[in-house]
């Protein structure tokens, strides 16, 4: 035999579960308010999954930064070599040395600055 207390608890549980079912149905993305839920549709989700990982690639202008560093390094140290040749009265001895030193130094700087991103 069911006591009065048990029937009250059972009725309360029925009301509570009915309220939860109504709220879930109203808020569910599969319910009638799907267009207003603010969530993406399954088609957009499928497109994101098919597209694979997104690679941002190098930052814009990185190639010009590398080229500029290489040209500036060789140019600067080449001009230093021309200046040393002119002041010391030598022929073109220090110009090629300065050019090579500048290119090696700028290549090291490019590898250090634009190398593998961590």
Automatic annotation (TrEMBL):
Keywords: Membrane, Transmembrane, Transmembrane helix. It comes from the Bacteria. The chain crosses the membrane at residues 63-84, 90-111. Residues 1-60 are annotated as: Disordered. Residues 41-50 have a biased composition (Basic and acidic residues). This is FoF1-type ATP synthase assembly protein I. It comes from Parafrankia irregularis.
